[in-house]
TrEMBL record:
<feature type="domain" description="Amidohydrolase-related">
    <location>
        <begin position="60"/>
        <end position="425"/>
    </location>
</feature>
<dbReference type="InterPro" id="IPR050287">
    <property type="entry name" value="MTA/SAH_deaminase"/>
</dbReference>
<comment type="similarity">
    <text>Belongs to the metallo-dependent hydrolases superfamily. ATZ/TRZ family.</text>
</comment>
<keyword id="KW-0378">Hydrolase</keyword>
<dbReference type="InterPro" id="IPR011059">
    <property type="entry name" value="Metal-dep_hydrolase_composite"/>
</dbReference>
<dbReference type="InterPro" id="IPR032466">
    <property type="entry name" value="Metal_Hydrolase"/>
</dbReference>
<keyword id="KW-0479">Metal-binding</keyword>
<protein>
    <submittedName>
        <fullName>8-oxoguanine deaminase</fullName>
        <ecNumber>3.5.4.32</ecNumber>
    </submittedName>
</protein>
<keyword id="KW-0862">Zinc</keyword>
<dbReference type="GO" id="GO:0046872">
    <property type="term" value="F:metal ion binding"/>
</dbReference>
<dbReference type="GO" id="GO:0019239">
    <property type="term" value="F:deaminase activity"/>
</dbReference>
<dbReference type="GO" id="GO:0102127">
    <property type="term" value="F:8-oxoguanine deaminase activity"/>
</dbReference>
<dbReference type="Pfam" id="PF01979">
    <property type="entry name" value="Amidohydro_1"/>
</dbReference>
<dbReference type="InterPro" id="IPR006680">
    <property type="entry name" value="Amidohydro-rel"/>
</dbReference>
Length: 455
């Protein structure tokens, strides 16, 4: 079982922020232990004495961002020449040829880089979908949990899988797949070791077959049953490209959403990555079932996959969150940058008045929390976990900005000055505590070149 977060020191008043994304908190918030215990009105003081005060007058305070879809191992193949300028399926086939070379040490460094990047962008919950298990990477989930704990970031780890190789109608080579029994056995092991369903959990585990056409029907159904027994959630890619629709029709004789229902995945314990190519009827079915969708705007634009139907999905009842997606289709692990991209692509889709900066921030906080089934994170209010991102507006890009919250998104904030997770500072003055980013970058870059021939 995952360990509880270490409480913060006493009662801390984060005082008089320049702006804050919370109701009735113009005078700041009080944190005690791992939680927010009070919102302080503008001009007021906390209701009870505090042990420490932090002057936030230079800072714009928002809930910690929550990433609901990523592939940390892909930080090793950013801007790789084999994959540049390709849509999803050719992109995947090109990179499968190199991803099989990943070593345990390379995977550890890739995870540390991805989680550190997320934290520096104001992200306090790092979701990752790891589905690649070549020989030597059998303990990948253990590595990710260890790296998250060392960094102090909250983690939503998904045990991914691929069991259909190119010999059996899938996309990946056989060397990257595992058989169903091996996958299910390790899923149960990881759930027993790490999944904590309690409020305030620092580590939660979901089961995440890579995509419905990368695994067998049996694995989809038994993953759903196993997750239900352990009170965990389910995650997969769905509706990302038109090629996927055609592939699903060819393999199963139906569209992806129909197949999802057939294998027992059309329920509110499921969230999907991308969710672009849904018909009106499918949007209604997903919404009625409460299936969440992680919008990945940067990746969708990079691979030209299409536009997620965010507004229709929300109106139908589906939670909508945000994800950076893989660092080889995004080439970054920066969720604050993803918030800006979400605003821009959705304004292009729905109109300038239909989607605001507050909508984009909401997707990255409350919406993402809902996708993960969590009500303890995603908002600044008493009783919630003290997961916070604090940004300053002292760069030239913000000069002349009048609305501080809008400026974060419209003027392109990318790096938080301070980040708090579960009541403890994890980033101070733009630096992650306990991480030498220069040494990390050097070691990670060297392995990327040695293993994958990156230029």
């Amino acid at each position: 079982m995952a360990e509880a977060a270490e409480p913060g020191p006493g009662r801390l008043w984060i005082r008089d922020p320049r702006a804050i994304l919370a109701e009735g908190a113009g005078g700041g918030i009080v944190v005690a232990g791992t939680r927010i215990v009070e919102c302080v009105a503008a001009g007021a003081k906390p209701a009870a004495p505090v042990d420490e005060t932090f002057d936030a007058s230079r800072h714009v305070v928002i809930p910690g961002l929550i990433n609901t879809h990523h592939h940390a191992f892909q930080t090793l193949t950013r801007a790789h020449p084999l994959a540049i300028n390709k849509p999803l399926f050719p992109w995947l086939k090109a990179l499968y040829t190199v991803w099989g070379r990943i070593t345990p040490e390379a995977f550890r460094l890739a995870t540390q880089v991805a989680f550190t990047e997320l934290l520096l962008s104001g992200c306090t919950t790092a979701g990752d979908h790891h589905y690649l298990f070549p020989k030597g990477l059998e303990d990948s989930m253990d590595v990710q949990v260890a790296e998250a704990r060392a960094l102090g970031i909250r983690a939503a780890i998904t045990r991914g899988s691929m069991s259909l190789s190119d010999r059996e109608g899938g996309l990946p080579p056989e060397s990257l797949t595992q058989d169903d029994d091996t996958i299910l056995s390790d899923c149960e092991r990881v759930l027993n070791l790490f999944h904590d369903p309690a409020p305030g959990a620092m580590v939660q585990v979901a089961l995440a077959p890579c995509s419905p056409f990368a695994v067998t029907r049996r694995l989809m159904r038994e993953s759903a049953a196993l997750a239900a027994r352990h009170g965990s959630r389910l995650h997969t890619h769905l509706g990302e490209t038109l090629d996927e629709d055609a592939y699903c029709q060819q393999m199963f004789g139906c569209r992806p959403v129909e197949y999802l229902e057939e294998v027992g995945w059309l329920n509110d314990r499921v969230w999907l990555a991308h969710g672009i190519h849904f018909t009106d009827a499918e949007v209604a079915r997903l919404g009625k079932a409460g299936v969440g969708v992680c919008h990945c705007p940067t990746s969708n634009m990079t691979l030209a996959s299409g536009r997620c139907r965010t507004c229709e999905l929300e109106a139908a009842g589906s939670p909508v969150g945000l994800g950076v997606d893989g660092s080889a289709s995004n080439d970054s692990s920066n969720l604050m940058e993803g918030v800006r991209h979400a605003l821009m692509i959705n304004r292009l889709t729905y109109g300038a008045e239909a989607v605001t900066h507050l909508d984009a921030l909401r997707w990255a906080t409350e919406g993402s929390a809902a996708c993960l089934g969590r009500t303890d994170i995603g908002r600044i209010e008493p009783g919630r976990e003290a997961d916070l991102a604090l940004f300053t507006l002292d760069e030239l890009r913000f000069s002349g900005a009048h609305d501080p919250l809008a400026a974060l998104v419209l003027c392109g904030a990318t790096r938080a000055d301070r980040v708090m997770v579960a009541g403890r500072w994890r980033v101070i003055d733009g630096q992650p505590l306990g991480v030498d980013t220069g040494m990390l970058r050097e070691a990670h870059s060297r392995l990327a070149v040695d293993l994958f021939g990156a230029v």
